[in-house]
Amino acid sequence: MRNFASNGHIAALVTILIWGTTFISTKLLLIDFTPIEILFFRFVLGFVVLLIIFPYRMKLQHKKHELLFICAGLCGVTLYYLLENIALTMTLASNVGVISGMVPFSTALLTMLFLKDESLKGNFFAGFAMAMMGIFLISYNGTANFQINPLGDILAIAATVVWAAYSVLTKKISSYGYHTIQTTRKVFLYGLILMLPALFLSDFKLGLNRFTSPVNLFNFLFLGIGASALCFVTWNMAVSKLGAIKTSVYIYMVPVITVVTSMIVLKEQLTKLSALGILLTLAGLVVSEAKLNFKKKGRLESRMVK
């Protein structure tokens, strides 16, 4: 059981380490591509890669499971990224960064409402408070002004709820015993299908000549193979092994990785507030995870006594 959980932690950590650096690739691609084009092309590439790796057709156990995959594709691929991208055009990126830290809390609420197989106590909320304070300090470190942009901020909040719903759906799907690559591939397929209306409503164009640029090609390979195909599989694995709540806590690390990557790649300076924010965020992660581990350990010890 301990090795099983350890594999889940490794999968979650690998996922977050990659997702925390995707902003650089996205920023570079925005020179030649629109947000919706980046979103569509990266998931097409991710779908093709997963199809090549595991080309076997999925056989559903029940027809009603199809609805779960449709909802997962809508939430985890289409709605989450569209809401986040639109929010970034209406509010400060720092606002979105802080609001994204609410994902674990949103996941906890939805998990308790719909799955009822994971419980919470005080340490989770203490860790959440510490992490949110840390993320706030990282985002507003003296280089950004605090502004409230109602519509953009509401869309960012909606994105956190949508991702929480995706995590809950993933946990539910994993209980049926389907292969993780097959489930991820099916989620990508529905996400791409449900994305089509947005493509027609936007200024989308194929423009395949843009892929001849080595910079564009490399960044799409990173986003499509690494951040999409690999990371969605590892995230789904982590959720199936650790649970939706425990896995979502790793989201706290995204702004930390972003700051460190900015220092290395973009040569940005680390401010004192950012350093303090990093420490608080990591402390919040440790407190939240320690709480859940301790509770599980207590149950095991109780069984041994009996």
Automatic annotation (TrEMBL):
Cleaved signal peptide residues: none
Subcellular location: Cell membrane
Keywords: Cell membrane, Membrane, Transmembrane, Transmembrane helix
Ranges for domain EamA: 8-139, 151-287
Primary location: membrane
Lineage top rank: taxon: Bacteria
TM region positions: 12-30, 36-54, 66-83, 95-115, 122-140, 146-166, 187-206, 218-237, 249-267, 273-294
Coiled-coil intervals, chain numbering: none
Any single Gene Ontology cellular-component annotation: plasma membrane
Membrane topology according to the record: Multi-pass membrane protein
Any Pfam family hit: EamA
UniProt entry tagged with the keyword Cell membrane: yes
Family membership: Belongs to the EamA transporter family.
Protein name per the record: DMT family transporter
